[in-house]
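Worked example 3 (structure in, sequence out).
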């Protein structure tokens, strides 16, 4: 079993827990959390600027590192990841853990339930580019 898959299995448990917790405690929604934790580097939705990170529109079901006109690291291009809820949660929780050498050397302060909200926001509100 690869490190990535071990990580994803562990995160599947976390995901179940986080989803339960999100029902109990109201707080900022996925859109607000995205603005706080991700928008400094990523655009998403109507806004089309490319920032330090790639645009995140249309990533649901897409292979990681394949947007055109973005200079990805070889690490993410060769990762073989496909973006769905589990991979996004794993990535947002610790990008370097699942893709060592990624340029998204970024540490946020999101709680597990907030990570799930951001992942669902990206998957549910995706505009196909
Ligand atoms: C400090 C800047 C920065 C922040 C903040 C940041 N990212 Fe990133 N992100 C990047 C960079 C740079 C890459 C490209 C990684 C690479 O090439 O290895 C990236 C890549 C990604 C990708 C892969 C996209 C693709 O086309 O495959 C996703 C998904 C992503 N980030 C989600 C997020 C989310 C969600 C947040 C907020 C929780 C976030 N990022 C916060 C810089 C950032």
């Amino acid at each position: 079993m690869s490190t990535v898959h071990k990580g994803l299995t562990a995160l599947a448990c976390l995901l179940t827990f986080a989803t339960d917790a999100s029902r109990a405690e109201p707080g900022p929604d996925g859109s607000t959390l995205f603005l706080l934790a991700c928008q400094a580097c990523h655009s998403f939705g109507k806004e089309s600027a490319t920032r330090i990170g790639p645009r995140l529109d249309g990533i649901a079901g897409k292979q990681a590192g394949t947007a055109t006109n973005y200079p990805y690291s070889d690490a993410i291009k060769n990762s073989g990841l496909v973006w769905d809820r589990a991979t996004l949660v794993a990535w947002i929780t610790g990008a370097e853990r699942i893709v060592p050498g990624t340029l998204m050397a970024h540490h946020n302060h999101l709680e597990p339930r907030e990570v799930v909200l951001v992942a669902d926001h990206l998957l549910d509100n995706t505009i196909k580019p």
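Notes: The mean pLDDT is 83. Residues 37-38, 40-42, 52-54, 56, 59, 64-65, 67, 72-73, 75-76, 83, 91-92, 102-104, 106, 108, 118 surround heme C (CB under 6 Å).
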